Amino acid sequence: MIELIKTIVKPLVDHPDDVTVSMDEHAKKIIYKLSVNQQDMGKVIGKQGRVAKAIRTVVYTAASKSDKKVYLEISD
């Protein structure tokens, strides 16, 4: 799942080397934390959050077979 997130985000940003994804797993949920360069935050979030929503939709759909709830957090 981490590679999927990186594959989606890296072409969108100007600083692809700064894209990092970490995973925090709990009993009933998995939280993926996406971190990008401060200058690329607008590109990842998009107008009115449309790009971020699309990324989350793809990640949630890919993780739908999992028994745990999946979340994607975007941070700078």
Automatic annotation (TrEMBL):
<keyword id="KW-0133">Cell shape</keyword>
<comment type="function">
    <text>A probable RNA chaperone. Forms a complex with KhpB which binds to cellular RNA and controls its expression. Plays a role in peptidoglycan (PG) homeostasis and cell length regulation.</text>
</comment>
<protein>
    <recommendedName>
        <fullName>RNA-binding protein KhpA</fullName>
    </recommendedName>
</protein>
<dbReference type="InterPro" id="IPR015946">
    <property type="entry name" value="KH_dom-like_a/b"/>
</dbReference>
<keyword id="KW-0143">Chaperone</keyword>
<comment type="subunit">
    <text>Forms a complex with KhpB.</text>
</comment>
<dbReference type="GO" id="GO:0009252">
    <property type="term" value="P:peptidoglycan biosynthetic process"/>
</dbReference>
<keyword id="KW-0963">Cytoplasm</keyword>
<comment type="similarity">
    <text>Belongs to the KhpA RNA-binding protein family.</text>
</comment>
<keyword id="KW-0961">Cell wall biogenesis/degradation</keyword>
<dbReference type="Pfam" id="PF13083">
    <property type="entry name" value="KH_KhpA-B"/>
</dbReference>
<dbReference type="GO" id="GO:0003723">
    <property type="term" value="F:RNA binding"/>
</dbReference>
<dbReference type="GO" id="GO:0008360">
    <property type="term" value="P:regulation of cell shape"/>
</dbReference>
<keyword id="KW-0694">RNA-binding</keyword>
<dbReference type="InterPro" id="IPR009019">
    <property type="entry name" value="KH_sf_prok-type"/>
</dbReference>
<dbReference type="GO" id="GO:0005737">
    <property type="term" value="C:cytoplasm"/>
</dbReference>
<dbReference type="GO" id="GO:0071555">
    <property type="term" value="P:cell wall organization"/>
</dbReference>
<dbReference type="InterPro" id="IPR020627">
    <property type="entry name" value="KhpA"/>
</dbReference>
